[in-house]
Write the structure tokens for this entry.
Amino acid sequence: MDRRHGIRITRALIALPVAMAALVLLAPGASAHPLGNFTTNSFSGLFVEPDAVTVRLVVDSAEIPTVQQFPAPAEVSAKQATDYAAEECSQLQPGLELSLDGDPTPLSVDSSDLEFLPGQAGLSTMRLTCTLHTTDDIETVGHTLEYVDQNSLDRTGWREITATSDGVDLADSTVDTDSPSDELTSYPKDLLSSPLDDKSASMRVVPGEGTTATEQSENSDSSDAGFFGGLSESFTDLVDARELSLGFAVFAFLLSMVLGALHAFAPGHGKTLMAAYLLGQRNSLRQVSIIGLTVTLTHTAGVLVLGLVLSSVALTAPDTLYAWLGLASGILLVGIGVALLRQARRRAADPPAHEPVLELVGSSAGQVQAKAHATAEQHVHVHPHDHDHPHDHDHPHDHDHPHDHDTTRQPEHGVTHSHGWGGSHTHPPPATSARSMIAVGFTGGMVPSPSALIVLIGGIQVGRAWFGVLLVLAYGIGMALALIGTGLALAYARDHIERWASARRRKAGRPSVVLKLARALPTATAALVVIVGVGVALRSALIL
């Protein structure tokens, strides 16, 4: 390698941990539904008149909340849908608080409607519409109108409030007249990562002609799910194929493996963190395989258990369960990172990795045995080697000095001794414990992929539970193969860089920048694990 190659490697070593942190902490998670398959989203449209206020409440439930309420929406009769809508709107009405100058103004339900819409993996989403109006004769002009929606505050989702009027104007309104989501029918892409969270509205009602909503622009379409979102949709659509043959089942299994492998690199899922761990540790094929297998088993088991629970038990807030899993995952990551930092500090306190080269040099006083170390100091040991017989001999060449090494302070990396008479041996690096590898794999797989969960539940609902389990298993296998391949590739690249840097160091007589960076990787990646763990825990805690 020339100097330019060394510069490129140096830049890569600096950029890689930073890029991994950005992918895990900053990128949004991939999901088939624009706002996630667990979300419950609400819209309140206020329409103010001189003597009345009307509220149009819309609740958009994603696939998981819908299947919990209606496991088989296709079998719901028109009467059942009507009765459910009326009852649900009546239950939501007390949570809608309307007041004029602080005095409560009662609302009553005028009409209700329930509609099922196609979702992912053969599942449905649910859209509930409630129309409410004030029951008393009121005078709105010259008063301050306040509105609060206390419903579903514990659920993750989009919350939006708008206000329009007829015959009066609205001054100092805290909400817009236009609906960015077109009443929860088309979520704007630029707001998906930070959805609206309007829980209340306030405005002064003054004389005027009225304010109306403007026509919706065409750029508020969220149908483009992006690359990783498109992969999730492709995966969830497999279980709902109309014709299921052996050939299609094999194709779906293989495609699920490919999608699972790509999912391992998707931002926002935490699997990218495994690359950071593997880069900073010295792992063999067996060790990397343990991590990949643990991730697969944990992820698959989590999907199966959570899928069965959600299909049989009506949890009030399944998204909260995901948040708790994320919090636990973040705490475990912090613990693993701290342990890795301690391990890196202990290794840094040991003598640095060295590459001894022993040569026999004849002299009148005896022979000098020189040991070249990878430290800044050079040590020369003189051993008397007087004998009467010629130096050429066939018997073993025994030395007076002991050849044993101090086992209490092993260097971090494997050490190979090259002797002038042809013998060589290598000290293997300290092995990563199986417990720590399993812990890393468990942490990486303990939060199930929403897409895999949707596939399993979708398979159960369409009578293909076995097919859903098969696809989830293939998905996990693909993840494992991707993680194992990535780990081995990173290990090969790291070792190749270190060998090249060590050769340059011997030639230049001092450690290169690349070698210093390579040796700092265990500490850097351990710190990255801690930072990512804190970020994951905080992000999950904000949802709880």
In short: The longest strand covers residues 107-118. Residues 9-32, 219-224, 351-429 have pLDDT under 50 and may be disordered. The chain has two domains: 3-30+227-350+432-543, 40-207.
